[in-house]
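For the sake of clarity, the format in which proteins appear in this thesis is described at this point. The fold follows as a row of integers, each naming the local backbone shape at the matching residue. One such record is shown here in full, so that the layout can be seen directly:
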Amino acid sequence: MGIKACSSQTVIVDCRACPRLTEYRERVAIEKVRRFRDWEYWGRPVPSLGPTNARLLVVGLAPAAHGGNRTGRVFTGDRSGDWLYRALHRFGFANQPNSTDCNDGLRLIDCYITAAVHCAPPDNKPLPEEFANCRPYLVEEIERLKRVRVVVPLGQIAFKAFFGVRAQLGIANPSPLPKFNHGGVVDLPDGVSVVSSYHPSQQNTQTGRLTEPMFDEVFRECRKRLSAIDA
């Protein structure tokens, strides 16, 4: 199955700043796994997705080796994405509850999805220097997404990345910084609310640390807050 780029973010998709990640994502794209042997893997950095006038921002960790690294779309083609797009659809942030490939018709509504790192890392664990290399992309996005009013960091790493970018941009953060906890809500001085969630990784979902009702509650809170702005 062939693929095409899901975004015009050519700077991201052509990035080779991290040798370890570049080698890994390209090797995975060649070796594949049996269930996807007929796929032409993307094998490049995975761009963000969604309209730049979105008011909801979702920040993930990194693409999955056989998910986004295969399909070319963030959170597409893996179990984490199944959970995320079901929840987004239930609360009106996506036009359909699933995403299998770049050409499946998915459209985000008032929602933009990005990640702290745009390449699939070995063992889902980017190194500190890889986070640092990818941070300029998130900095540029936070600057550009002027209408964001609610942010959902998926996991503690995404939570720290978001607040780190705000600090780098000189945007006021609470002092001390709040602690990450699932379902925690932080209202920031500039009118942005952070609604935190555990990452919908299989490690969390298969152990019951994160259930679908828990995940839904996060996006129910997001919808509630955006609806209050609309009222």
